[in-house]
Structure formats: C-alpha cells, structure tokens
C-alpha cells in the first residue's frame, strides 16, 4: 500500500489517537497549523538522533553509509534511510533542510541551524558530550557571532546569503525533540524506578533551556515533541522476548512505555506552565508518542510488515536480528532490506523514512495535529475540520 493511498487512513487515525489520549490538553486546543503560511524566517532545532541531520557525523563519526539510500542517495548524517520528521517539517515551512551547526562543509544557515546530536540527552552524562544546555550554548554563540558579523562586515550581501538576519531570531521557530536518551541511559545504568524518579530533574533542565532561549535570545515560538514509545523499539524488546508477561497486547514493553508516558505527562505540565509564565511566548506541544504507538499497533493495517523487524543493525552491533546477515571469516555484515518502505524500524533504534513520513503527515496534516497551548505570538490556526 503506497502512502498516497494512505491519506484517508491518516485522517481516520487522527481521530482514533485523539480519542485515545482524551483530547490531550483539551479538545478545544487540538488544532492543525498550516505551517507554510506562517512564514517563519528560520528554524532552530535541539535534540538527539531523532532529528540529527549531520551533527554527530561532523563531530564524532560518520553514520553507516547505507543510511540515506531511499532519499538522499549520498551520506546525509541521518540515522535513517531517508528523511526525518524534521525534514518533513522544514518542507512544510517552505525552508531548506537544516544544516548541522557543527558541519563545516557545504552548510547554509540562512534559514536556521540544527544543534541536535545523536545520543544527546537533556541532562549531562549518557551517550553524547552534547547535552541540551551545550546545544543551547552553541546556539547563543551562533547568534552573537552572527550579530557581530552584521555589525562589523561591510559586505552585507555576502553575510545574508549564508546567515540569518539579526531580526530573524525573535521570529524563528524553536523546536525540541529530546528526552528519549535520558530514559534509555537510565534503564541501562540504573533501575526503572530510579529512572522514573529522576524525571523531574530532566523536566526542570528542559525548562531552564527554554527560559534561556526566551530571555537571552528573544525566542518566542516553541514547538515541543514528547518522547516516543521507547518500549516499542526493537532494540529494547529483544531483552524482554523471554518475558511475555512484560509485553502489552501489541508486543511493546509496557514498563518502559509507562515511564515514557510519565515523562510526557510531566513535560506537558511544564510546557503548560511555561506558557503561563513567559509573556508573549507561544508553545505547540506535539504528542508524538500517541502517533508512533498507533503506527506500531496498526502496522499491518497501514501496509507495514512486522513493526519489530528492521533493515540494518547499523552501528549497534548484532543485538537484534535485523536485516540480512552474511558471515565472512567470523565477521557479520548486514545487508539492508530491499524495501525499507514496508518497515517501521530502520536499524532497531530509529525509524525508516516511511515511518517518519507517516508520523509527519499526522502531526502536520491530520486532525490530531499539534496542540496550541498559548496563541500569543503565533498566527491563528485554522479549524482542522476544514481538512476533511
């Protein structure tokens, strides 16, 4: 089943998910913004591998060469066979794909920059040396250096071709997709109870980052993704295959998802509070968890194969029976699957382009949509019913 033929399913599923989460923050707050007509001059993103467009490749090591085979055709620094959700959002905004801030080759920051680094978390420690506050510090330096160049350089045309205008920063859209690695690292290095108990510290660190952008950079427009169903990731399910009592009716690890839902609950509460505390700021909270969980639970109805199969084990060793393996002199080589558009998982941890497209279509086009928490500072959203 092609995605062109799935549009009607996407609209239907939007209502199903909305009912499942009880309308989120409130039925009257469920909206569908037509992002392209908002005319945001720039997009700045902070996050982990779910939205990394080349940061880890530039700073640490290249991602597997088999990545990007579906869309880009050449290494793109993404942990995916093609586009990520943020790429589809950029398309919707009418902006170019975001260049990674740390990439020095062929980058253009005229319409924003991506500070996301694979493995990053909200708190320090974990899988990456680039936690959220480091990403924020990088952004603030980028902003100050840009302002200095505009002030001191006589050739403004040269600067304008590669850098944003100083006035664009207050009108830009600031996106967050981070938190999954905080939970994952906690699961691997402490108990589930201890990980859940640490959630308030994660949320407070997130709020501090938002406040810094608001106060130091004049940011006003915020778009926040909650974390996905970590218990539905093939990498995690492998360790619970011998414990079927730990799995829910769709085969996901319920105890891990329960902690993810608690994280999302506290994140939503904090975003609501930030919307009240920061005058003139507008927040859009996107319930990615519900969309991704519905994708897994209804995978075969939507034209996908087993949601716990994947194409390539990437850099994660042989922890998951993933893709087609060939053993030569004791070395295991992974051959990517011939049709990743039929699978949800790309490398046992990250989604395929087809799955990312599905999620993006729902949060951008369907009735579930993002949820506006504060209309100040953002153009009015039109009624989502007009889409049907």
Report on the structure:
This protein is α/β, with parallel strands linked by helices. It has one domain: 3-Layer(aba) Sandwich (Rossmann fold), CATH 3.40.50. 36% of the residues lie in helices and 9% in strands. The protein is built from twelve helices and eight strands. It has helices spanning 7-20, 55-59, 85-93, 132-152, 156-160, 180-189, 192-197, 199-217, 234-237, 254-277, 288-297, 353-365; strands at 43-47, 112-114, 173-177, 221-225, 282-286, 324-328, 331-335, 371-372. The strands form two sheets. It has a six-stranded mixed beta sheet with strand order 2-1-3-4-5-8, covered by helices on one side. The chain has a two-stranded antiparallel ribbon with strand order 6-7. Helix 3 (85-93) crosses helix 12 (353-365) and helix 11 (288-297) packs across helix 12 (353-365). The radius of gyration is 20 Å and the shape is globular. The model is unreliable at 1-33 and 366-388 (pLDDT under 50). Keywords: Glycoprotein, Hydrolase, Signal. Belongs to the 'GDSL' lipolytic enzyme family. InterPro entries: GDSL, SGNH_hydro_sf, SGNH_plant_lipase-like. One of its GO terms (molecular function) is hydrolase activity. Residues 1-18 form the signal peptide.
Protein topology:
Layout: H1 7-20, E1 43-47, H2 55-59, H3 85-93, E2 112-114, H4 132-152, H5 156-160, E3 173-177, H6 180-189, H7 192-197, H8 199-217, E4 221-225, H9 234-237, H10 254-277, E5 282-286, H11 288-297, E6 324-328, E7 331-335, H12 353-365, E8 371-372
Helix pairs in contact: 1-12, 3-12, 4-8, 8-10, 11-12
């Amino acid at each position: 089943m092609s995605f062109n033929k799935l549009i009607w399913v996407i609209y239907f599923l939007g209502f199903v998910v909305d009912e499942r989460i009880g309308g989120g923050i409130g039925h009257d707050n469920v909206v569908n913004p037509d992002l392209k007509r908002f005319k945001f001059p720039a997009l700045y993103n902070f996050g982990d591998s779910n939205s990394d467009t080349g940061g880890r490749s530039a700073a640490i090591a290249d991602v597997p060469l088999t990545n990007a085979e579906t869309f880009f055709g050449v290494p793109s620094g993404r942990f995916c066979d093609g586009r990520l959700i943020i790429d589809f959002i950029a398309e919707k905004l009418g902006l170019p794909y975001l260049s990674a801030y740390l990439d020095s080759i062929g980058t253009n920051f005229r319409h924003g920059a991506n500070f996301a680094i694979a493995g990053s978390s909200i708190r320090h420690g974990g899988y990456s040396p680039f936690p959220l506050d480091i990403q924020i510090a990088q952004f603030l330096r980028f902003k100050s250096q840009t302002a200095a160049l505009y002030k001191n350089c006589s050739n403004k045309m040269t600067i304008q071709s590669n850098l944003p205008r100083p006035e664009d920063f207050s009108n830009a859209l600031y996106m967050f997709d981070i938190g999954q690695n905080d939970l994952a690292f906690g699961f691997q290095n402490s108990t589930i109870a201890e990980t859940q108990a640490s959630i308030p510290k994660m949320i407070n660190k997130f709020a501090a980052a938002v406040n810094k952008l608001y106060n130091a950079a004049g940011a006003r427009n915020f778009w926040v993704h909650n974390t996905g169903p970590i218990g539905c990731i093939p990498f995690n399910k492998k360790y619970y295959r011998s414990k079927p009592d730990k799995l829910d009716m769709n085969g996901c690890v319920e105890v891990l998802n329960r902690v993810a839902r608690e994280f999302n609950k506290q994140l939503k509460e904090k975003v609501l509070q930030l919307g009240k505390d920061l005058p003139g700021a507008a927040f859009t909270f996107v319930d990615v968890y519900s969309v991704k969980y519905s994708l897994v639970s209804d995978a075969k109805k939507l034209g996908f194969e087993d949601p716990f199969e994947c194409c390539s084990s990437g850099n994660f060793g042989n922890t998951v029976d993933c893709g087609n393996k060939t053993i030569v002199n004791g070395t295991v080589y992974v051959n990517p699957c011939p049709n990743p558009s039929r699978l949800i998982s790309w490398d046992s941890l990250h989604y395929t382009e087809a799955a990312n497209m599905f999620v993006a279509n729902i949060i951008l086009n369907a009735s579930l949509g993002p949820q506006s928490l504060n209309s100040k500072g953002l153009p009015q959203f039109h009624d989502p019913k007009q889409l049907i």
